[in-house]
Amino acid sequence: MHFSPKWPTITVTMLYSFAFLFMLAYGSIHILDSRWVWASGKYNPALLCMFSGGFGGILYTMRALYINVCVKNSWDASWMLWYFLRPAVSVMSGFVSYLFFVTGLLIFDAQQPESASKFAFYALAFIAGLNVDRFIEKIEDIAQTTWGIKKSRVSDKNQGDNNDNN
Fold first, then answer.
1. Is 57 helix (H, G, I), strand (E, B) or coil?
2. Residues 51, 93: Cα–Cα separation, whole Å
3. Using one digit for the tens of pLDDT, what is the confidence trace for 14-37?
């Protein structure tokens, strides 16, 4: 690869992604070690679900960065906002997955031992962060079935992350 005018935006995006990854790792370690007094006890599962969703989102973001810069050589700076917002949206999706799981609106088909249930929260949150569009579709399906709320336009197959750029 040679230096091009695109590299400053690519570099900023990479640095942001690594900084976000560092913040997620730092927060997760501090929660697991009970170093933050304000994040102790009953809030830990919700916070760890948020971080798990963030890890899924940052994985997806870094993969998209790799594919668009190295594989396809199709970097487009107009997508920078997506690269900056995607991890934060994934953190929110991780939290929403936690809310829907603890309220019983999202359930797993397989019966698991009680000790494994917290890891099911984190796995679901990771998947919610990794695949935000499908997660939103699932949440909207549940809302439509449970409360009769119609799906939003965001769930339209022609919008969102369902394009070739990422």
1. helix
2. 10
3. 999 999 999 999 988 888 877 766
Q: How far apart are CA 158 and CA 121, in angstroms?
A: 30
- How many C-beta neighbours within 10 Å does residue 69 have? 17
Under a CB-based contact definition with an 8 Å cutoff, are residues 24 and 51 in contact?
yes
Rounded to an integer, what distance in angstroms lies between the CA atom of residue 124 and that of residue 128? 6
3-state DSSP call for residue 138? helix
Q: How far apart are CA 48 and CA 117, in angstroms?
A: 13
Q: What are the boundaries of each domain within the chain?
A: 7-155
Tell me if 54 sits within 8 A of 24, measured CB to CB: yes
C-alpha torsion 146→148→154→157, nearest 10: 80
Sign of CA dihedral 19, 21, 23, 26: negative
Q: What is the pLDDT of residue 104?
A: 78
Average pLDDT over residues 66-86: 94
